[in-house]
Each structure stands twice: as structure tokens, then as C-alpha cells.
Design brief:
Elements (H helix, E strand, L loop, with lengths): L6 H30 L4 E9 L5 E12 L3 E3 L1 H10 L3 H18 L8 E5 L9 H12 L6 E5 L1 H5 L3 H13 L2 E7 L6 H6 L4 E4 L1 H6 L4 H16 L3 E4 L5 H9 L4 E2 L10 H18 L8
Parallel strand pairs: 2-4, 4-5, 5-6, 6-7, 7-8, 8-9
Antiparallel strand pairs: 1-2, 1-9, 2-3
The structure holds ligand C2E and magnesium ion (MG) (3 copies).
Ligand C2E binds next to strand 2, helix 2, helix 3 and strand 6.
Length: 290
């Protein structure tokens, strides 16, 4: 460890890099084992329609807790999986679990869609076949599956990507652009691909309250989406004030901690049932007929 400035600070820098590389390698090794032993779990977060507060879909989010390393965020392990090709197995497992869960959920969630994240790397393998298999095995109606892809997938624009997305869309599968506005999607791309929804990146939502510019940008993006016949979902909604702005700006759907945090399916189901019971209790009761 460094005692002084000068050469010492270089040693400190080297050591940090080394520690980072070691940590990464440790995570990759543990992840490989977790994938091999089916220890990646799926949590769900509600996506709610603003007009009537109905849960239209649940987004499937990968979760992993290593016995030694503890819980590790997908923001950390998904990029590592993408670099080590583990992403294909993880993606397949999440998709399968999500389709099977969605095919079975009923009660307060009956008919709701499931929204599954796909990594750009998955488009370089047989993604259409994998989706087809998940639909057949689960028995899920294709119209209840939404695939979330990032702008990167559209930008890597090979003829095969377009062909694959068209094939999935023709089957009835929905397509959403995740983290929209954070990357560089040109508007032309949105028309070229069979996209159904755009999910406005959380960074726009978190700026809504303080910045008139952000409000104008969000409003313009929502208008543009509607002109192109696309639905809009706002990500990362945390406050009532943000919700009110989004409602005023004409956003269709919202997702975020305010509406419900991601959790295991049984917890989400229980929360929806409680919400339905509360609605019932609040609704006016007809007087008994005599
Ligand atoms: P994403 O697809 O944009 O998912 C939304 C992320 O925002 C989730 O983080 C969710 O927990 C978080 N979030 C939701 N509401 C709020 C809010 O109100 N405030 C804040 N601060 N955050 C909120 P999570 O679960 O940590 O996932 C991070 C990213 O990892 C995802 O971003 C997605 O890109 C990726 N990911 C997760 N699961 C999978 C998967 O199965 N496959 C692939 N390819 N990527 C995945
Ligand atoms: Mg997503
Ligand atoms: Mg997102
Ligand atoms: Mg995001």
C-alpha cells in the first residue's frame, strides 16, 4: 500500500486494478457454478396502466445470491455473463421460468403479460428457436410475451436481426425498446423494426420534477411514440409528483418503486390480492334489497 505520493500512488493504482480483476474472475467462476446448478432466480416488478391502474405486465428480473459472495446485482453479473457467453444460458433459463410462471398466474394477475429482457448477445445465437421452445413448453399465448431489447440490438442492424424480430412479431410476441433515450437510436430504426413499446429511461423520469427541459423532452418522446403507433412506459417512477407529470404528459404505462418493487412471484401476487381487496372495500356497497 502507498505511503506517499509519487511512485507509491502508482502501486496503489495497480493494486486496485488487480483487485478488480480478481473480484471479476471470482464472480465469473461463482456465476458459472450458479448457472450449472440452476441457482439464478426470477423476480417480478409490476408495469401499471396509468388510465385505470391495472397491472398489464410483470417484468422478469434475474436475481442471484451466491452462498459466499452474497446477493449480486444483475447490473454487475449480467455484463460479466455477456462477456463470458454465460448470458445465453441465463437468458434461456429466465425466459423459460418467466413463460411458465406467466402461463400459470391467475387471480389478480390473470391475463397479464410477462416482459423479459434479452441481451444483444442472444441475437447472435438462435433466439427465435429459444423463444419458440419456451412458448411451446409453457403453453403461454405468444401475445402475452413481451421481449425487451436495447437500442444496441437495433444498431448492430444485421439483416438477420430484422428477420428474427419480424419472425417473433408475426407470431404475436411484443417488442419493447428498453432504456429508450439513453442510447443513440435514430428515429428511422423505430419505423424499420416491428417495435410495439418504448420504455423511457429512468434518467428522464428522475429529472421530471426539477427540469422543464426534461418535461419537454419526455413530452416530445411520448408524442413521437404515439405518432408511430407505439405505447410508452416510464421506468423508475418513485414519487407521486413524477406520476402526476407522466399522467399529464400522456404516458401510457408506469413502472417503479412507487407502483411496486421487484420481488418473488408469491409476494407480488399477495400484494396484488391485497390491493384488489382494498379496492373492493372502498367501492360503494349497494344497500340490501328488501
Ligand atoms: P432494466 O431492464 O432497465 O430493469 C429495470 C431496473 O430498474 C431493475 O434493476 C429494477 O429493479 C430497477 N428499478 C425499477 N424501479 C425502480 C425505481 O423506481 N428506482 C430505481 N432506482 N430503480 C428501479 P435490476 O433488477 O437491478 O436490473 C438491472 C438491469 O439488469 C436491468 O435493467 C437489465 O438491463 C438487466 N437485467 C436484469 N435481468 C436480466 C435478464 O434476465 N436478462 C438480461 N439480459 N438482462 C437483465
Ligand atoms: Mg428491462
Ligand atoms: Mg429499463
Ligand atoms: Mg434501465
Amino acid at each position: 500500500c502507498a505511503k506517499r505520493d509519487g511512485p507509491g500512488s502508482l502501486r496503489l493504482f495497480d493494486r486496485t486494478l488487480l483487485e478488480e480483476a480478481e473480484r471479476r474472475w471470482q464472480i465469473e467462476r461463482a456465476l458459472r457454478l450458479a448457472v450449472a446448478t440452476s441457482r439464478i432466480e426470477v423476480h417480478y416488478q409490476p408495469i401499471v396502466r396509468l388510465a385505470d391502474r391495472r397491472v398489464l405486465a410483470l417484468e422478469a428480473l434475474a436475481r442471484w445470491t451466491d452462498p459466499q459472495l452474497g446477493p449480486i446485482s444483475p447490473a454487475i453479473f449480467i455484463p460479466i455473463a455477456e462477456e463470458s457467453s454465460l448470458i445465453n444460458q441465463i437468458g434461456k433459463a429466465v425466459l423459460m421460468q418467466a413463460c411458465c410462471d406467466a402461463a400459470a398466474w391467475d387471480g389478480a394477475l390473470a391475463g397479464a403479460c410477462v416482459s423479459v429482457n434479452l441481451s444483444p448477445a442472444q441475437f447472435r445465437s438462435e433466439i427465435a428457436t429459444v423463444v419458440e421452445q419456451a412458448l411451446v413448453i409453457s403453453g403461454l399465448d405468444p401475445s402475452r410475451l413481451i421481449l425487451e431489447i436495447t437500442e444496441t440490438v437495433l444498431m448492430q442492424d444485421s439483416g438477420t436481426t430484422l428477420q428474427t424480430l419480424n419472425q417473433l412479431s408475426e407470431k404475436g410476441v411484443g417488442l419493447a425498446i428498453d432504456d429508450f433515450g439513453a442510447g443513440y437510436t435514430s428515429l428511422a430504426y423505430l419505423k424499420k423494426f416491428p417495435v410495439h413499446k418504448i420504455k423511457l429511461d429512468r434518467s428522464f423520469v428522475s429529472d421530471l420534477e426539477d427540469s422543464e427541459d426534461s418535461r419537454l423532452i419526455v413530452e416530445a418522446m411520448i408524442r413521437l411514440a404515439h405518432v408511430l403507433g407505439l405505447q410508452t412506459v416510464a421506468e423508475g417512477v418513485e414519487t407521486e409528483a413524477q406520476l402526476a407529470f407522466l399522467e399529464r404528459l400522456g404516458c401510457d404505462e408506469v413502472q417503479g418503486y412507487l407502483l411496486g418493487r421487484p420481488g418473488p412471484l408469491d409476494r407480488i401476487l399477495a400484494a396484488r390480492l391485497r390491493a384488489a381487496a382494498n379496492d373492493l372495500a372502498r367501492s360503494p356497497v349497494a344497500p340490501p334489497v328488501r
